[in-house]
Amino acid sequence: MEYQEIEALIALKESKNLEFKESTGQLDRSMETLCAFLNGDGGIVLYGVKDNGNVVGQEVSDSTKRAIAEAINRIEPFVSLEINYVRIPNSDKFVIIVNAEKQRFMRPFAYKGRAYLRIESTTTVMPQEQYNHLLMQRGGKYGWEAMVNPDLKISDLDENAILGAVREGIRNGRLPEVTIREEIPTILRKFGLLRDGNLNNAAAVLFGVDFYDYPQCLLRMARFKGTTKEEFIDNQRAQGNIYILLDAAMAFFFKHLSLSGKINGLYREEELSIPYKALRECCINSLCHRSYHHPGSSVSIAIYDDRVEVTNTGTFPADLPVERLMQEHDSKPQNPIIANVLYKSKILESWGRGIGTMVDECKRVGLPAPEFKTDGNFVTVVFKYNCDGVNLQLVNSNPTSNQQVPNKYPTSTQQVLELVGILKDGEYSVREIMSFLMLKDRVNFLYKYLTPALEEGLVSMKYPDNPKHPKQKYMLTEKGRKILEK
């Protein structure tokens, strides 16, 4: 913001959406006003301007910025406010601008436990009746996931993903078999995604294909060198529906975490340095239970030499502290519509068992239980590789690199070459190939064997235009046969 814009604002005088404060010495009163703006149509507070519009400015130090940030953090629920510091011409002083944008889906807001509203140019305490009404809208049928997007059409959704979710639900007994024969609109209505011909936001999060209106459907992934964020080795972003983001997350883990194998009975089990089931459960919870209302939010995965951190916007239920979450508990999903669809399609294994699964899986392989942290704005799950400073299951020379085959095959892993060897005699389904390889973890097979082979052009699909064809089979390409001959 330029100083000329501040002069233009001051000329409008204090109003329903504009407040002047002489300095940040009036932080409490100004935060009440910002809270009122958030409960209304938004607004701006200018610090360094007297009530009559005279600009006096104020000095800005690190302690000033900290005081503002700490005051904003007392506004509940968490909200991101835009703050600008504009220097007054020919002066060492600044005008501070705090902009509170309209937050329709997250009202009511409270500062220090009390809600406020704006009447003309006056800030006042919100009546209890109005507070209860806004609270009901936020937590009930008017929650963000249930809000209708009139521009979202059924053609904007991935039909294959919808039918895939239905098939998984039928296969695992969570949906009746008749569901697969029903029309897409009927399925969407039963999932709670379509009402009176209109799709809600949950439909886009679950099955969308175009995310121009949903920038928050984002996954950020990074592999850092060492134990800090100073230098990264790999940095990726993925945008898409929950199923796409879950696939991208697991692929990133398989790329950067070491893999070891052992024979267990008739099958070979391949284990990541952090159990696959724990990581998958963590990502599902992050994608399902996060706060989606803020367009700039995302889920992030950070892999370090000594730990993995998965972070999402949101917080734990107020009446379920972390200690209680570690035990068996009733599920209180932030997004019940999204959670219900994921449960029926068996992405969510069971209600209220996600954290317990993560803890049990880590203990099973001798790793410390994951840590669960929240500051009221974000939830972070930390998986550690080591216990008492001793590294576990990692390759010493490069803790996140999967062992490669000899240099004469510089682009192919041992797993890909094994797959090539299996396909030498014909074409087979995923189930058949996994049987030949003595594997029982389908996701591991897809990410370590099949997907890399397809990307390298060594393997092709029988139905390339329909990757999820129920009779899909795989065969060697000419390039794959040359590798086989070698």
TrEMBL record:
Example of a GO MF term: ATP binding
Alphabetical keyword list: ATP-binding, Nucleotide-binding
InterPro entries assigned: Fic-like_C (IPR049514), RecG_C_sf (IPR038475), Schlafen_AlbA_2_dom (IPR007421), Schlafen_AlbA_2_dom_sf (IPR038461)
Keyword Zinc: no
Pfam families for this protein: Fic-like_C, HATPase_c_4, SLFN_AlbA_2
Ranges for domain Filamentation induced by cAMP protein Fic-like C-terminal: 414-477
All residue ranges annotated as the Schlafen AlbA-2 domain in the record: 14-126
Name by which UniProt lists this protein: ATP-binding protein
Higher taxonomy: Bacteria, Pseudomonadati, Bacteroidota, Bacteroidia, Bacteroidales
